[in-house]
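Researcher: Next entry: EMB protein (Rhagologus leucostigma).
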Amino acid sequence: EYEIVLPGVSGTALQKNVSVGSPTKVELTCKLDENSNLKNPQVTWKRGSETISHTSKTQNSWTIQLTISDSSQLGSYSCILKGEVEVSATFHLQVPQIEGKERPIITYEGDLAVMVCKTEYAPMAWTWYMTNGTELVAINPSSHTNKFRIKRQSADVNRLEILKLTKEDIGVYWCEAAFRLGSSKRRFELRVLSIMAPLKPFIAVVAEVVILVTTIGLYEVYSKKKGEGEREFDQIEQL
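Model: Predicted structure:
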């Protein structure tokens, strides 16, 4: 059972994501806040753009009951309340989404890269892919024992480890969770830097310091020689 409470303020459009991993019955309810000024609204339920009828109502709530048996019944279900103002609420029925790191994974040659995927419900199976051009190639750890390790930390958490990183490992990786009503994917971008990369700023600073010290040393030598030359010239004039 899922419910959205509407405040009855003009222009309000609330949304809720509903995860459905396997065939089930779902009850969706739109309810007006008890302090709302919207009285006796005209209520319409829609699936996408198709109007459907609600199965039950009370004074301030309207409910539809759905039997989800396959993926074609997933999608957006909306209730629209019209009166002095118009408000709406939308339920997005979808297979469970995968949680994971959104930013690129940046590491160095020879290191270990770790990618972790997590779902709200345990999937039937997990699959990891690497991108080869425009194709996704399934990763089989048993045939690359020195490169990949896949660990199922729990029923809803899966982990990919890439060992001894090289520049060839740079690219996009995907994890896929398969449910009875469909599958979800999560994208990971891996960047591998040379071990010298973090040393470059340090080397640049050292080079600048060396140049500065050398310049100061040469100037001091030049100044010293110039001073000695002027003293010799004064002595010659006196003689």
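Model: Note for the record: The first helix runs from residue 200 to 238.
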